[in-house]
Every structure is written in structure tokens, then in C-alpha cells.
Amino acid sequence: DKDNKEVSYDSDAVDTEVNIQEVRMIRNAKLAETDWMSLPDAPTMTDEWKKYRQDLRDITKTYKSLDNVKWPSKPE
Known about the structure:
Elements: H1 11-34, H2 47-57, H3 59-62
């Protein structure tokens, strides 16, 4: 029967995608904590904060799993 095809998938690929999504969720929450700094009436964002935010945006280029993510430190 053509309608009863077995669906196969690469469980490693699925796990990787789930891990990347988890990293993105945490990253997005960390970015959201500092979004107010980019508002027009907020004080000027320092270079350290700009770098922190860029490092967060770039995190999924370097890490594919929560198991080994090294999150950037917030500036003081």
C-alpha cells in the first residue's frame, strides 16, 4: 500500500536541530534582557555591551549544543 510508507529520519540531525533551537531560545532571552539599551531614549550603549550582544548573536555559528556552550560574560 503506497499510503503506508515508513518514515525514516536521521536522529542525530534531529538532535542537533533541537540543541540549536535550545541555544537560540536562551540566546534570545539574553538579548531581550538588553534590548532596552538600543532604544532611542536609552543611554548610549557602550562598545562592551555592543560586543556582548554581537557575541550572543554569533553563538550558533560556534556552538551547536547546550552541552558545550560558553556564554559571553555580561559587561559590568
